[in-house]
Specification:
Length: about 240
């Protein structure tokens, strides 16, 4: 039989072995857990870095695409669709029209005055677009100017054409901030305050030149800053010679 001391020694050794094994197992598990945590942390960091890089790349690509968009590829506002075939037949001037119309513009038409000598009529090397409050006759693409129906006009004529004095009957000009067109051209903007007792409101006039042609946007009763005129000018694009 094993003596009491010997048995105690055997049990003590057994306990020590168990403790050692448990310690080793714990160390191994702890090491694996730490390693797993490190691996997960590294994976998460890599994934986060990849996502950030992807977002930055998409953002830069979008910004580059927007910044490099060619104004010439932008179509004019859909309201001009019915007018374009007729306008191309009536004028040889390079056609420029806004790609977006302010909400205040209810319709558009081509101006052609049957009276001789009207400098704003359409034909030859010039054209005039009427910006209308509303359109009682949508089928009338070409019409004369009627003041109560008309918010303003867009005219095009050779740059060599003598400019009219804006103070002649319309009002005293006040210089406003220039407007940038999509292609970078700067349009000069002025507000014309009518003389006392006039039966019309103030006008805002924006003028720019492209390819030896002068384009003028004239809007009546615009805001003091010329918001309607600015929107029209800021989206002006060249219309292809043919569809």
């Amino acid at each position: 039989m094993i003596g009491t001391k010997a048995l105690s020694a055997v049990m003590l050794i057994h306990l020590v072995l168990l403790a050692t094994l448990a310690s080793c197992s714990g160390t191994s598990d702890t090491g694996d857990t730490s390693s797993n945590k490190d691996t997960a942390s590294t994976t998460e960091q890599a994934s986060s870095a990849d996502t950030t890089a992807t977002v930055e790349a998409i953002t830069q690509q979008a910004q580059a695409t927007t910044g490099n968009a060619a104004p010439a590829t932008v179509s004019p506002d859909s309201a001009f669709g019915p007018l374009l075939p007729t306008l191309r037949q009536m004028t040889t001037a390079p056609i420029m029209l806004p790609a977006s119309l302010p909400a205040k513009v209810g319709s558009v038409a081509i101006e052609q005055d049957p009276n001789e000598g009207n400098p704003h009529t359409t034909g030859g090397d010039k054209y005039t677009i009427l910006f209308l409050y509303s359109d009682p006759d949508p089928g009338q693409i070409v019409r004369p100017y009627v003041h109560y129906m008309t918010l303003g006009t867009l005219t095009a004529a050779p740059a060599s054409t003598p400019t009219q004095d804006p103070t002649n009957g319309l009002g005293t000009p006040q210089q406003l901030e220039d407007v940038a067109l999509p292609d970078g051209t700067r349009a000069n903007l002025k507000r014309l305050d009518p003389p006392q007792g006039a039966n019309y409101g103030p006008f805002t006039v924006g003028t720019f030149e492209e390819q030896d042609y002068r384009y003028t946007v004239l809007i009546e009763n615009d805001s003091p800053e010329g918001d309607v005129t600015r929107q029209i000018l800021s989206t002006m694009v060249r219309v292809p010679d043919s569809a």
